Prior knowledge:
The protein is α+β, with helices and mostly antiparallel strands and 139 residues long. The chain contains three helices and seven strands.
Amino acid sequence: MEPSNQAITVEATVKAPVKKVWEFWTKPEHITKWCQASDDWHAPYAENDVRVGGKFKTTMAAKDGSMSFDFEGVYINVEEDKLIEYLIADGRKVSISFAAEGNETNVTETFDPEDTNPHEMQKGGWQAILDNFRKYTEQ
């Protein structure tokens, strides 16, 4: 059994320059296009104020209307095109780094796990969302 405080990391290399990756990651009109872990979910609403002290909220919902929740929090560190750190509403910390390598950008997300679901399930869900982001940004 993993320790409950062990941070989880997911990553992807996006075939796009860091400026585009940053824009697609942070603009609400893009967030609603990629922020879901599976095809039967979607993100019908997003707001994002990307600055220290700024807040974000993304509504994640099952397409059949059976359930939804708001993923929200506040930014604690923002370095444009490089780093985003925030606290989720439940107090867990998330750190996302953007490393430019020519026309590709490595996106690495590290997050504190929650106590309800197994770490592998959490990692799989966050990786699926990151993979959707990569596919959306590369098209």
